[in-house]
Every structure is written in C-alpha cells, then in structure tokens.
Amino acid sequence: MASRGRRGGAPAREDEQRREEQTEQQAPAPQGHVLPPPPPVDYGVFMQGLVQAMQTQAHTQAALQAQMEAQALSAACRQEGEMEQYLEEKKASQKRPAATFQ
C-alpha cells in the first residue's frame, strides 16, 4: 500500500479534459448589454490625424526650443552687462588713491 494508484475508471488525462469541459459549460453568460463591435477604421482619416498630431508636436517643440534659446540669450546678455559693470567699478576703484590710515 506504499503507492496509491488509480483504481479502474478513466485515465488522468480524460479526467482533466472532463473537468475543463465542465468548467467551460459552467462559465456564466455575460450579464446586461453587450457592446457592439467598434466601427471600422478609415486608414486615410487615421493617417491624416496622425500627421496633423505630429506636425502640431513639431511646431510646439520648435516654439519651446526658440523660447528656451531666447531665455538663455537674455540671461547671457544680463550676465555680460553685470560683468562689464563690475569690471568698470573695479577699474575705477583702482584709480582712486587708497585712504591711508594714520
């Protein structure tokens, strides 16, 4: 009695098939309204929309790039002006005689 074998009846494979068939038969039917299939897609219209979306994205990207470059240029010009002012003030301070402390 060390091994437990199957006694008569159908082989294991047939039992599995029978269980699968019963499960399929017991699957509940969809409740409520069943949605109709989606309408067919017009490939030409789809492609036009896709091209338009890509063009819009490209224009938006170009506008953002131009705005970013303008901001960077503005910051660089401001920094250059600040540096020029600093150098002028430094030069002027070097021309003045230093106050001597007595």
Helix content: 55-70%
| N- to C-terminal distance | 118 Å
Report the order of strands and helices: HH
Rg over CA atoms, rounded to whole Å, is 41 Å
SS strand fraction: under 5%
Characterize the overall form. Answer: elongated
Poorly predicted runs are: none
Kindly name the structural category: mainly alpha
Characterize the main sheet.
none
**SS element count, helices:** 2
Give the rounded overall mean pLDDT. Answer: 83
Total beta strands = 0
Please give a structural write-up.
This protein is mainly α and 102 residues long. It has a domain at 58-95. Helix content is 67%, strand content 0%. It is built from two helices and no strands. The model has no long low-confidence stretch (mean pLDDT 83).
Characteristics:
102 residues; mainly alpha; 0% strand
Short description:
The protein is mainly α and 102 residues long.
Detail the topology: elements first, then pairings.
Blueprint: H1 12-26, H2 43-95
